[in-house]
Write a structure and sequence with these properties.
36% of the residues lie in helices and 22% in strands.
Length: 209
């Protein structure tokens, strides 16, 4: 579409957009950067939970009118950060019989987690990048209806779709080095009504010289 046809712009998940553009190939990087710069030079509203005033310094000093609105609402959901993967798996086992959700930044690791929850008795469905959009909505509808008690998803559900069901616990596993920390956090927050978040973030091993 032609950007010049619009007088105002609203960009949601601005930090994710910046990340995607920075990862573009050389063939598309300059074109996408030019489009973003055109939008930033226009009347624009930027929205992102990860947005800070420092992020705006790159262009706000060049603008005569720039306004900052900060959301004062603090998320009070309890967070349990596990130090070992074994502790993380044990907590999943202890939650058996309750409605839970599991996110993982790696599709292959998520499939391994699915084998684990299968063995301990969870009924589950999985959403990945290979899942068609219509099927994603059907899975979420079945989850809300209580047809299974464990919803699992990969980075395909980092933005755009929310889990609005009441969830006893949400479990998040990040093996590290696959997606950005911002995208990883966004995956956690897809479970809007969870009572507790359990996460295990694996540190990348340093390569000795």
């Amino acid at each position: 579409f032609d950007l010049t046809s619009f007088n105002h712009f609203i960009i949601d998940e601005y930090m994710t957009l910046e990340s995607h553009i920075s990862e573009c190939s050389n063939n598309t990087l300059s074109k996408n950067m030019a489009k973003l710069q055109y939008i930033l030079d226009s009347n624009v509203i930027l929205v992102d939970a990860m947005l800070t005033k420092n992020c705006l310094d790159i262009f706000s000093n060049q603008r005569r009118y720039a306004h900052w609105y900060e959301n004062s609402v603090v998320d009070g959901t309890p967070l349990m950060q596990h130090k070992t993967f074994e502790s993380f798996l044990k907590e999943i086992s202890l939650a058996q019989g309750k409605r839970i959700s599991i996110s993982c930044t790696s599709k292959e690791k998520l499939k391994a987690l699915q084998e684990f929850v299968d063995k301990i008795g969870y009924t589950n469905r999985m959403i990945t990048g290979d899942t068609a959009l219509d099927e994603r909505y059907n899975i979420l509808k079945d989850y809300e209806a209580g047809k299974f008690n464990c919803l699992m998803y990969s980075p395909a559900l980092s933005v755009g779709i929310n889990i609005n069901s009441d969830v006893e616990k949400h479990f998040h596993y990040d093996p590290g080095g696959i997606i950005s920390p911002i995208q990883s956090i966004q995956m956690i927050r897809r479970a809007r009504k969870t009572k507790q978040i359990d996460c295990f973030v694996q540190r990348r091993k340093k390569i000795s010289s």
